[in-house]
Amino acid sequence: MKVSFELNGKATSVDVVPDMPLLWVLRDVLDMKGTKYGCGVSQCGACTVHVGGVATRSCQVKASDAQGAKITTIEGLSPNGVHAVQRAWEELDVPQCGYCQAGQIMSAVALLTKNPKPSDADIDAAMDRNICRCATYTRIRQAIHRAAALTAADSSPPGRAGSPAGLGA
Amino acid sequence: MDTKQRVNRRQFLGVSAVAGGGILISTYLEPLSAAESWAAKPAGDFTPNAYVRITPDGVVTIIAKNPEIGQGVKTMLPMLIAEELDVDWKNVRIEQGDLDTDKYQAQTAGGSTATPTNWLPMRRVGAAARAMLVMAAAQTWSVPESECETSLGTVTHRGSGRKLSYGELTTKAATLTAPALENVPLKDPKNFKIIGQRISGVDNHSIVTGKPLYGIDVTLPGMLYATFVKSPVFGAKVASANLEEILKEPGVRRAFTVEGGTDLMGLLGGVAIVADNWWAAVSARKKLSVKWADHPTSAQSSASFEQQSLALSKQTPQRSLRKDGDVDAALKAPGAKVVSAAYYYPFISHSPLEPQNATAHFKDGKLEIWVPSQLPANGRQLVSRTLGIPEKDITIHLTRMGGGFGRRLYNDYMVEAAWIAKEVGVPVKLLWMREDDVQHDFYRPAGWHYLTGAVDAQGKLVAWRNHFVSFGEGERFAPSAGLGATEFPARFIANLAIDASVMPLGVPTGALRAPGSNGIAFATQTFIDELALAAGKDPAQFRIDLLSNAPIVDPPPANAQGQGQQPILFDGARMRGVVELVVEKSGWGKTPLPKGTGMGIAFHFSHRGYFAEVVQATVSKAGILKVDKVWVAGDVGSQIINPSNAENQVQGAVLDGIAEALSQEITIEGGRTTQTNFNNFRLLRMRQAPPIEVHWKLSDIAPTGIGEPALPPLPPALCGAIFAATGKRIRSLPISKHDLKWT
């Protein structure tokens, strides 16, 4: 069937079987490899994308249910990878193998959109559905705090902008 | 260190001029993204050997030879070269080398070996290139080389202040003869500018922007997608399958039976379904019905292993691995307090997050493979042997891996992809389902340690016996199911016996991060806690006393496992150093803790690294366990090459240890794995990750590896903390099976 949706700001149409998960539409049909397959059963979060701004496991979204949706993937998060969360991830050298990090970043962005200054407990709750097999959790937590600070600095009036010292990698 | 024999100038360094006037101390290698246009690229324009390319525009390209699994080697090895080359890290580009063992020799990820085996060789590669650039500048200026110095990619003549950038020197340098690597002067470590800095991973930007880097991301023109269904009973062959029905499913191009062999590490029998896309292949798979042939191991189960272990523990051990002094006499000595306990740890899956995959294309008798493999050269051999294709006709491209942990030391998925691609004749990407990975791993083997020890009236450990019950046949342990004869506390107790008995196993086993050690440390270190208690001593002090004993000096044993060819003997003083450091940093014994909260301590030596860890944990009265904090002290030699990555690795290893100890277990029933996915094989989540402090103790030994040795002390340190908090001694893993309630 033909399915149309907005993907990273662009109108996109695909012709696929209705039950093909959005994950495989992205990866195999649209050749967008940033969204990862880890478990296929909504346990690991490696396939996290935003559907209508909500962090969603794309392995559980059927193509037919994506009709008309507004979808953002890691590739569409920002031009040139300069989103505060992406910058914080690089600055703190978060990744080990890196395989889960697209999903982690998408969940972190969704969290910060709703809650610009999350506590550790907020972070633990929001990130509970994303597994990092290398267990870079300590740095993910730090990087989310850092991204919150970067975002606050980006949006503060001139003269007050600045980043906290001592967090750089 | 045996680096000298590993350095072979001819094999390490070749220099040639390339078009455009660059010097090539390397070859041009295509990054993974070029896989998409592979068909258009002429093959075979190699210039053999080496690692560095500098172009006239001053861009320095360094080849990372080893497979990257997340251990940071793709950043670390080029750092060593760049340091001695004396260039600005900002101007360095890193490219992943393809498999070419003639050029790069060992290209492996395993055993925490990359640092100790490359520390000098990679630095010499950089230093040799630097020496040639200095020579080129000196000749240009007609001055002695001794008057020239380098910094950030520029040669300067001290007397005149003249400067030439490396880019300006490439044409001249390409005409010079490379110096002998053995004699190339290396920097004094106090002048290091890159080594010792917090350098971010070279693929980080690609990772955070979702670029295709991993095996699963490889795409070739005209590529089909495969799923491969094997028997849940390991090694059973296909008796029959409804292939005609499967061929009628939408998008399915081919469905066929693979006969397979009997070696569990090789190609096993199964059904391949090849389709236009992977979803079509796995959708068809849901309709697949296979009748599997009978298999002799289909009656094996975790319960039967447990029964056999118990029976073996009551019999005379099948063999002795080590015997010092007279254990029986020491156990019977007057005043001896004897402690006996049985320890058990289960099978565990590696479960790297990127499922197993490989992409292969067979054309005109030749195979080209893109694969995430920790031992790609072994994979090439396996493919060659199984498919009857000479190794020289197999090209292997290394991709970044979504985790390794030892799983990708085995190349079963590579040979499956190669076989399917040969059958199909067009490029094929084989991708396993997560369920395939959980059910077809080379598991960390279960193990049983029946331990007896004694302390004398002064509280000194005087006897130790370990009857280790494991898997294998005769004198041979199943893979990674052995116990080394130098495993601590061997050599530190006068009366010690290590015995072993084995039972047969039809379940594939293999190396999981810190193989052997990841289970052995739990048993031996927790038992040391039990002996400390019997001695009435503090667990940390008891350990320090034990490590202070003068070790028995014995000839290198033949059967020490997991430490390379030469057994590396445990240095009690270095271990004491990290135990004392972690005691100091954690405030061990000085911090008053409420009931229900406790600290545990453990140490372990593996992969040349010395690690001691303290865990603080809290157990609620209802029995809910929370790990509050972990302190780590490590000694991996004189230099932490990349502190950012080293801390990340140690924290990851610690959390891996927590995950294993808390809840991980693979159980076998009917010869097959009962777990299927992450809903029943649990990986750690963020809320379970405590803060982790990492402290280094530098010693005057060349740096050693960091990927593994921080893991083994964690499970016993955690179990020690639980005992301190609740009085409950954990003698079997996972902890989740124990009731931790207290009143």
Characteristic key phrases:
heterodimer, A: 5-stranded mixed sheet, 5 helices, 5 strands, disordered C terminus, B: 743 residues, 6-stranded mixed sheet, 22% strand, globular
Could you explain how this protein is built, in words?
The complex is a heterodimer of chains A (169) and B (743). By secondary structure, chain A is of the alpha+beta class. Helix content of chain A is 33%, strand content 14%. Chain A has helices spanning 22-29, 84-91, 101-114, 120-126, 137-155; strands at 2-7, 10-15, 48-51, 54-57, 70-72. Chain A has a 5-stranded mixed beta sheet, sandwiched between helices. The termini of chain A are far apart. The relative contact order of chain A is 0.15. Chain B is built from 19 helices and 29 strands. In chain B, helix 3 runs parallel beside helix 5 and helix 5 (114-141) packs across helix 6. Chains A and B meet through helix 1, helix 2, helix 3, helix 4 and helix 5 of A and helix 7, helix 9 and helix 18 of B.
